[in-house]
Amino acid sequence: MKLKPKKSLGQNFLIDKNIIKLIVNAGNIGNKDTILEVGPGTGNLTNEIILRKPKKIIVIEKDKILAEELLRKFKNNIILINKDILDIDESGLNDKQIIVFGNLPYNISTQILVKWIKLKNLNNIFKKTILMFQKEVAERIIAKTNSKNYGRLAVLSNWKLNIKKIIDINPSCFFPSPKVKSTLLLIEPKKNFFKIKNPKNLELITKIFFNQRRKMIKKPLKIIFGDYEKIAEKLKIDPNKRPQNLDPIVYFNLCSEYEKSNL
User: Fold this and answer.
1) Helix axes 199-210, 248-261, angle to 10 degrees
2) Tell me: the pLDDT tens digits for 124-133?
3) What is the CATH number of domain 7-189?
4) Which of 85, 112, 198, 228 has its CA 20 to 30 A from that of 257?
């Protein structure tokens, strides 16, 4: 059965066998591991995962035609969930320390990542994730302080995740070939991370700051705190700096102060 990728779902099927092996090798799969694959498409990566004989393979595929084809192809080797990943409750998957693989649809990749970061017990659910992003998005995720790509996504990612770039992947490794390069990231949840009561507060703080990334931080500080000078002094922040000059820990501390002042 010839399956056509759907542009509306951001489908680009991975076809390069060497890249497929490299991705699965990065997961270092053991026979006691549960695997979650997001957006398996035609099952090229799924097939390689099955060869590693994990305990269980769960695949999430939104496309009904692809889902039916995957079941026909792999039968009892997979547990298939025919849903949108954004509608899945990961805490209900029941297995601890899942290894996740995902050639994520580029149009919703950041939404998926942020959704996972906001999970309360992320480090109990996921052991590690090996995820494919558009190169430009990956650069924003792993960006360091004082770089042009550093922004909200880097701060949110740094809060709960350790991230390592594995490789850039050329468009020719996919069908159809996307117009951009891709990047594979190995992401592991931190066991210990800064305690924030509500992730939405960190999203709010970073939004206010990075909406005015070229301006000095005096302005966003004033918007968030009535006594901004006292906060700046307490956290040893220079109000004349710009948002990209502040380390992630400064944003976590600002979020903590915001939560204290809004009890």
Assistant:
1) 120
2) 899 999 999 9
3) 3.40.50.150
4) 112
